Amino acid sequence: MFNIISEAVIRMHTRTGSQEISSLPGVYAVLMQDEVEAFPSLRPHQRHAWHAFLVQLGAMAIHRAGVGELPADSAQWADLIRGLTLDYPQDEPWQLMVDDITKSAFMQPPARSKTRETDYKSTVATPDELDMLVTSKNHDLKSVMATRASADDWIFALITLQTMEGFGGAGNYGISRMNGGLGSRPAFTLAPSERLGAHARRDITALLEWRPTLLTEFPMTDGGAGLLWTMPWDGTAAESLPANRLEPFYIEVCRRIRLRVHADGNLYGIRTSSKAARIEGKDLKGRTGDPWVPVNRKRDDLPLTLAAGGFTYKRVTEYLTEWGPPLLLRPTQAEQHSSDTMQLVARAMVRGQGKTEGYHERIIPLRPKTVRLIGRTGGTQELGDIGRQRIEQVGIVQRILSHAIQVFAARGNADKVSPEHRALARPWLNKLDDIVDRTFFEDLQTEFEADDDSGRQSIRNRWLLNDDKGGVIDHARGVLHDAEDSLPCPAMYRYRARVNAEGLFEGRIRGNSDLPFLFLPKNRESVSQPELEQGD
User: Fold this and answer.
1) Closest-CA residue to 398 (of 344, 353, 437)
2) Containing structural domain, residue 156
3) 404-427: pLDDT as tens digits
């Protein structure tokens, strides 16, 4: 029932503006033609789970069949997908509901005996109840609201749960592709554009190209277990699978769940716990060759767990230049010789202790020179050096800005600055950070692409100070003025507070701050030609 290979169960918005309902092979066909605009049932935090599922399944099917090119026809995709489950002529692994619990259903592992169905005592009424989101309070995102859910709501929820979930308490183990039960499964990948089809097509092609590397660097097996929901699982420790039994593109399941149908035709779920994780991951600590996850070169190549705050420019610079790039962030052979701009796509759900701390997504355009460096041994060193210097200089400006705002808040008396005044300055420092963040990577790449050191220095100078036209210092002045207009200060002290705060800011910027070179006559031309003409 609800056979996703042969039945139209997945809704799509297409380029023509219409909404279509298609089977899974039909989705592949439309994606390969780059006609998909959106999947209306797909929630933002489910995007990577769905994308990764499509890429891993597509790459696995093409590799097993020995096909040279990605097909554009839905019938060909149906044959390729069925080729992974030849032992199931009734397509049970692709049906959302299979009555017999000893047979696989989509993303639902079978039990070894029909008597095990009595283990499944917990009912899941809606797909959002099944989903991985955990909220401490039921207000910002209501739970158990999808009471009229469609089949694709369940498809996306199942994929997200089984391939992205962490530890959920006793008997609820997480996936193998993360570092610890409170970790996350982030995604860093290159994409030709923000188009869903172009991204899927690129990652399938790239994953196939990088397959030999996965087999060499990780304890996987060519021809190993790939679709883990097709394998019997009663949740015992003896059934935990070692990594060397797995196919490099394996799609896992971490929870024992089955879907059932009410008399009115609506789906619901039943689930139970396990005594051990499906994959032996304690020693792996997430080192499974996940092709989307950066690894920490300084800590035994442990995979990234994104912290609260998401993909700030400081963190992305670090991940891009200091961490080991995942395979799908490395350019393919064709991309290394391309002159096209690409996109860095970064996605992750931040998981806290018993709660979800936010979904984060960022897309950054990357120019050809930057793309070619990613993944090359030592290739990002120069880019990283420039990025770290810029981050350090932003930090200098922020410290001076913070001091100035604190003095203003202290009514212009620098000797009266208190922890309360320092706390008042923090939001304004964050505001400057947000301003810098908007164009940081565009500005970084502009300097990186300069022909010589003189050109780079000129670009850096203008980025820092540009005659009130968008330099970091120019923005900091604006933030200081906004703070002065907003922060409380008695009228009788306001003039003194403003003069002292602005005097401190300008004095420190021009003085012992590592930035006074910006104000030397020899640098004025590179910073502000109009000021030079005025005889400054």
Assistant:
1) 437
2) 10-373
3) 999 999 999 999 999 999 999 999
